[in-house]
Structures are given as structure tokens and as C-alpha cells.
Amino acid sequence: MSKKSVNLWGGRLLTVLTIAGIGVTLLPYFWMLASSLKTSSEVFELPIRWLPREPQWSNYPAALSRGAFGVYFFNSAVVALAVMAGNLLVCSLAGYGLAKFRFPYREVSFRAILSTLMLPLEIVLVPTFLVVRGLGLVNSYGGLIIPLAVDAFGIFLMRQYIKDLPDSLIEAARLDGCSERGIFWRIILPNCKPALGALALLTFRDNWDQFLWPLIVASRDTLKTFPLGLAQMEGIDTAAYHEIMAIAVIAMIPTALIFLFFQRAFVRGIALSGLKE
What is the mean pLDDT of each run of 10 residues along the chain (277 residues)? Predict the structure, then answer.
């Protein structure tokens, strides 16, 4: 078999495997969407019924009426957007400082920040809650937002991206009399749009469906986020999984829109960050 034939069949095989991988990835989402339009008896019908006999569009208003989901979605949006804004600002500042300023123990500080990535939220949950309670932030937006407003991965991402920006841009701005604040806002941030887009998407996604921390810090119904409302639906008599799937479909829409909006920046930011030390 010639080399040209090998390359041809190899390309075809890669195409088939890619299509199969996309299908496997999208299959749970398709099942979720289809289940949201089924009756409760059709959801677990065997053999699996992939399409409902008759779409039950009434599942959506019925699911939303099972709890204060307008409040829950609003709280999730407030927390996710506030945490996203905090990460964009603080991680950019920290990344700029670690990338372009020389000070004692800079590398030690950077490695200490990276080491916190090995600590999952469950490990620091109790000490973080004790600090939040000591500050009187339990059952408040501050308690939901502040502990998550800075992330070590965000600092790493911004530091790696900013490190690759030419030092000549900063030196030229300083020679022109631009302040450090002006350099950050007028030069650094405009040149970091891909990394900022990637960080915004990842942060919003992680906090939009955050469950564990809101469960610990928010006991008032007016402060609960939509994952907590979703969990409550499963505990009301028998679980109405077709309505749970309807809420899950609605909850997926903001993340999908954010991804479509930041798609190019996300791909470029991930591709260009972390390539060099």
C-alpha cells in the first residue's frame, strides 16, 4: 500500500473517530433534552425511547413552578458574574506582577500559589467557613462570592500569557510618562483579551453550577442558587426526573451562550498560555 493510500485511509479513520467522539460527547445532552419533553413514565422506559411520543412542553412551566427558580437563577447569575469579575481583575493584577516585576521570592510566591491547586475545595471547606462565619458573611452574597473571587489557576493563566508580552511595550510606555496603573489598563489588559476571555468562560462555568459552597454558606431560601433548588426537587415526595431535566436544560443555556460569545478568545487564550516558563 502506497504512502498516499495510507494517508488517505488514515485521514478517513481520523474523521470517523472524531465524529464518533463528538456523538458520544453530545449523547448525554441529547438524552437530557429529550427527557425534558417526555412524561415521567417514558424517562426510564426500556428499551430506551430516545424521542418522546409527544413532546410535553408543559414540563418547563411545571418545573419552574416547583420552586422559586426565578430567585435561584438570579442568585446563580449574581454569584457567577461577581466571581468572574473578581477573578478577571485580581488574577490579571497578580499575573502582571508575577510576570513583569522583579521582587524577592517572586518564584517562591508563584510556586506557593500553584501548590494550592492541589487542594480541593473539600479540604479547605471547614477553615474557609470558619473565616466567613467570623466575618459575619454567612447567609449573604459576600459569603457566596468573596471566598471564590480569586483562583490560583486564573493567576497562572494570566501570568503565563502576560509573560510572553514584549517588555518593550511596557518600557516605551514608561518612557512616555505613563503610570503603572495606566500601563496595566491601557497596555496589558487590551493585549490580554484572549486570556481574559478564556478565564471569564472557565470562571463563569465553574461558579454557575457551584453546589457545595452555596450548600454550606447559604441556608436562607432567598440566597440559594439553582443547583440547590434542583437538589430540593429530588427530595419532594418522588423525584420528577422529566421536570429536573427541564430545569437542567434551562440552566445550560447561559453557559452555552457565554461559550459562544468567548469561543475564539477561549481557544486562543488556552493555546497561547502556559507554553513557556
Answer: 67 85 87 84 78 83 82 91 93 91 88 86 86 90 91 90 86 86 88 86 88 88 86 67 85 84 66 48
Give CA 225 to chain center in angstroms.
15
Range of the domain at 70: 66-272
Q: Do the domain assignments include residue 87?
A: yes
Q: What is the CATH number of the domain that holds 136?
A: 1.10.3720.10
8 in any annotated domain: no
**Model pTM greater than 0.85?**
no
Asked if the structure places residue 5 within a domain, the reply is no
In a domain, 2, yes or no: no
Total count of domains within the chain: 1
